[in-house]
Amino acid sequence: MQIIKEVCIDSYEDAALVESNGADRIELCSRLDLDGITPSNDLLLRVHSDLKIPIRVMVRPHGNGFIYNKNHINEMINTIKLCKSLNVDGIVIGCLNESNDLDYHQINYLADYAKPLKVIIHKAIDYSNSVLSSFKNLILNKNINGILTSGGAQFASDGLKTLKKMVDLAPENFEVICAGGITHENFDKIHLELNARFYHGRKLIKY
Predict the structure, then answer these.
(1) pTM here?
(2) In what helix (H) or strand (E) does residue 164 lie, and over which residues does it extend?
(3) Which of 23, 42, 92, 164 is the most exposed place for a label (fewest CB within 10 A)?
(4) pLDDT of 68-118, one tens digit each?
(5) Contact call for residues 56 and 6 (beta carbons, < 8 A)
């Protein structure tokens, strides 16, 4: 089983470093101090031009939660349009409503527009009322290719039981990307518990 290690980065320098140190792909963001928002067009264009490994792009117009108005959605569509023109590997989105459930109307609208790019739902799922119910809905959605999650906890190490359920329940072509404080130092211990294929973290690769 091939393990994919995805590293989230918010600068060109880090993108180049993690590629040269063995990352399998990157999630490109800006402002990782806000858990990642949409990268600038300039950063996206430069990284896309120079990197050989797959790039997934965070599409999150602000760092204040995951609730979006019409203007935010239009911003996201513009970013997705650029991503499609570049044929990046995928986009990473997540929308909640006022009741802290996934906003499937917004998600489906964005995912429909994004095709044929891969569409991943990010850790917004961990803030929904029921992470497992949200997961079960998403694996039935033909427009969604995976989720990035720490099992409803802040850190993967605290959500291992739920993460393991997700990994075991996921269809073969659906990515459960385990995230949340996973580093090159604790990776082996967490992988022993989960036996997952996909992992994500800022410090997942030593560089």
Answers:
(1) 0.97
(2) helix 160-169
(3) 42
(4) 999 999 999 999 999 999 999 999 999 999 999 999 999 999 999 999 999
(5) yes
